[in-house]
Amino acid sequence: MLLGFGRGRDLVTQADGFAREVSSGELWAALEPRTREVLAVATELDRPALQGLVGLHGGLRARIAELVPEEIEAGSVLSLMFDDLAGTSLIAPFVLTRSLSTAAWE
Fold it and tell me: Residue 31's domain spans which residues?
């Protein structure tokens, strides 16, 4: 199982040099590395719509846009982490094929 966790924030530096947080987010995800199936997903705020990702084997970006369009439209930190999740789910399993024995897939 691939486990992912991301935490991010978007800061705006004001004229006086102080930074103001405008967006933040946390994302947890569990994926099956062979099939890229989403096994579980959670965020720091309860977003029940995201359970619609569980069971997917790809097409994450399109499904995320359907489930939480407000995050995508706002360009929130969470939307950027979702985008990273889609790419990571494709690339991360490749490492297992190169560095670990087949026992690592169990």
Answer: 2-100
